[in-house]
Amino acid sequence: MGLIEEALRKSAQQRKGSLRGNAAVATKLARAPVAEAKVPQYRTTPTDRDTMRRNRILPSLTDVSVTRAYKILRTRVTHRLVANGWHFLGITGTTAGEGKTLSAVNLALALAQDVNNWVFLVDLDLQRPQVGAYLGMQYDNGLTDYLTGQAELNQIVYDISIPRLAIVPNARPVEYSSELLMSPRMNDFLYFLQAEPPRRIVVFDMPPLLASDDVLAFAPRVDSFLLVVSQGQTARRTLTNAKEMLGEMNVMGVILNRSTERSDSPYY
User: Fold this and answer.
1) What gap in Å lies between CA 107 and CA 227, rounded to an integer?
2) Model's pTM, two decimal places?
């Protein structure tokens, strides 16, 4: 894990005290108090509880140690977001299969369980979208439909009957994903995410670092990243390859997935 720690130190030194993201957009917006904000109504769509249970999605989990781990992650992430005034959080990994989508979905759900948080979960893995499938959602339009001009914003945001959480799924993969991420319609989408009351934490499920140039292309618009690595799966050589890319980003921390360490105590 030394490579990860070194990359995190390097990133922190380079960006200490700085706020990344779309600063030009942020300066136009006044943050409305949550208690006074009128909450928009989005399209409602069902989820499949059996699918969520199979995919180990909150709140279907019964493993106390796992739910406790997500709550600890939520609290630590929230503290960092609030301390730095951040709202856009990207979740990525080094390669496919490390659990970054699972981490993004469960972190968004855990954040929304806190009554002080309002959350958008956005499937920004345009080449291999999985968020909707993980939740067992039924929907017609997703983010790619909006970015390609086939749907409007009010057609791609969904309410899955979980308080304080809204989902922007994606179902149609595209090959020219990095071009869409830099398009004018993506700019409009980001402005929408910032302008919707109440002000929300936006969790982006991003592609793996080494799978495409999407994360590099979109990184300037994200305040901070969480890197997901998988015990017994993430190879040292992939961490070495990801090291330079991590150095160009503001990395909040690392999520260790599939850890064999656990606490089954009823309290700790």
Assistant:
1) 13
2) 0.83
Give, rounded to a whole angstrom, the gap between the first and last alpha carbons of the chain: 25
Q: Residue 11: CA atoms inside 13 Å, Cβ hemisphere, count? A: 27
Distance CA 167, CA 42 (A): 9
Separation CA 149–CA 128 (nearest Å)? 20
Measured between alpha carbons, how far is 255 from 49 in angstroms, rounded to an integer? 25
In a domain, 44, yes or no: yes
* 243-254: pLDDT as tens digits: 778 887 899 988
For residue 150, the tally of other CB atoms under 10 A from its CB is 12
User: pLDDT for 73-84, tens place per residue?
Assistant: 999 999 999 999
One-letter amino acid at 142 equals G
Q: What is the pLDDT of residues 123-141, one digit of tens each?
A: 999 999 999 999 999 999 9
Note whether residue 31 is domain-resident: no
CA Rg value for the chain: 18
H helices, E strands: number in the chain: 11, 8
Q: Is residue 34 part of a domain?
A: no
Count of domains observed in the chain: 1
